Amino acid sequence: MVGKLFVYVIMPIVPIVLNKLKSNRYVKSENEDKADVMTKQDKIKILILDDEKQFTEELNESFLNSGFLSFEANTEIKAREILADHDIDLMILDVRLMGVNGLDILKEIKVQFPIMEVIVVSAHGDMDTVIKAMRLGAFDYLRKPFRHIDMQIAIERTQKYIQMQRKLKLLEERNSLISKTLEKKIERQFIGVSSKILKVFEQALTAANYPESNVLITGESGTGKENIARIIHYSSTRKDYLFCAVNSSAITETLLESEFFGHKKGSFTGAITDKMGFFEVCHRGTLFLDEIADMPFNLQAKILRATEEKVITRVGDTKPIHTDFRIVSATNHDIEESVVEKKFRLDLLHRLNTLHIHIPPLRERTDDIKPLLIHFVTDYSIRFNKPNIQIADEVYDLMTTYSFPGNVRELKNMAERAIILCKSNLLGVSDFPIKQPKATKKVPQDEMANLKLVEINMIRNALKICNYNQTAAAEMLDVSRNSLIRKMEKYNIALNKGE
User: Fold this and answer.
1) Which of 165, 192, 457, 478 keeps 20 to 30 A from 59, CA to CA?
2) Which DSSP helix (H) or strand (E) runs through 200?
C-alpha cells in the first residue's frame, strides 16, 4: 500500500506537475516562505478524513507543500473537532471508514456546513456509490489509487467555487454590517419626546410587523418621511435585503417605465445591455417611492398591476418575472385632492394606503425642537472638530416662536450653519438668523371662541347630513378628507352617530 501511495501521492516532483503548481497563486515554492503575501486566512483549508493513517499523512504533506493549509483526521471524532476549530473550505472524505459509512458523514456535513466542498475518495467505489455521493452534495469523486495530478485537477476545479462562496460570505457580512450600521443610525436620528412623534414611531413599528402590507406616509417636506420609511424597513423581516429609495418626480417620463420595470438589450436606442428595474432589484426588500403624487398618470396603471400581481415584464421582453417587494410611499401633497383632480388613480391609492402614517410638522410638536437641536449641534460640533459647544437658553425660546416651514430639515441646516460660523463655544440668538413672525392684529378671545364654535358646528352638521361618511362630509365642506380628520382630532369630534 505504501508503494502505491508513494507512486500516486508523493510523485508531484514530476516537472509538468511542478509547473502546474507554480502557476497556482496558492502554491509557495521552497524559497518563498518569507515573501509569501498570502495569509493563512487567504489559503484554502483542506481536511482529510481517512482511517488509513499513512494515506492521510502523505496526502497532508503533499497539500502543505502545494501551499494549502491541511489537516488530517483518522476518526470521525477528530474530524469534527477540526471542523469546530477551523473554517474548512474543502474536505477529502473516504467513503469506507472503520465502523462508519462515509456517505452518512457526507449527508450530515452538507447540512452543517453547506458551503464546504467535499471530494469523495474510495478504493471500493461503484457507480451506485458515485451517484449517491453526488446527490448528497459531493463536488467530485476519485477512486483509489489515484494520481496526484487527478487530485490537483479536482482541487483546481473546486477552487473556483470556494472563492465564489468566500465572496458571497464576505458580501453577506458586509450587508449585515451595513444593515446594523443603518439601524443604529436610524435609532440615533429618531429624536423626539412629544406624544405626536412617539405615536408616529409606534405606528412605524406596527407597520414593520406586517412586511407584506404597503404603507403611505404623509407629511410636509422636511418632516422625515424617508427616515420613518427606513425605520419600517430595518425593523421588519425584510431588513437583510435592499431598501431602494426612488424620487418619483426626479425621473423623466420617458425613462420611468424602464427604470421601474427594467429593459431588454436592444429594446430601444441606448439599451446596450439588459437592465433590472426597481421592482426586480428590490426582490424581498422595500421600494420607497417618494413624491408618489407626482408620478405620471399613464404609468400609474402599470405600477398598480405590478403591485397587485408581483409580476413584472421588462421593456422589450415577454418573459414574466416574479418578484417579492413591499412599497412604502410618501407625499407632501394632499393625495386625495389629487384623486379628485384626476391626477392620481383612486385604485392605486387604495393599494398603497393599506397602512397610513401622518407625520405632524415641527411647529405642531415644539417639544421636539430642543432635543433635535441638541442632537444636531452635538453631531456637527464633533464632525467639524469644534467640541464643547453649548446653546444659550434664549435660543430655545426663539425656536419655539418660529414656524419652521422647512421642518426638521431646516432645523438641521440651521445647526450646521451655526457651528460653521460660530466664533465662540456658546451659540446665541445671533447664530440663528430667524425671521421673527410679523405682528398681526390680535383677535379678541371671545371672537376666537365664537369662530371655533362655528367651525365645530359646521363639521358636526356636515357629518350628520352625510350619515357620518367622512369623504362625503369633506366634499360638502370643500376640504380634503385628511384635513377633515385633522380638524376632528383637534376639536375632539368623535365619529359617533349617537352624539
Assistant:
1) 165
2) helix 195-208
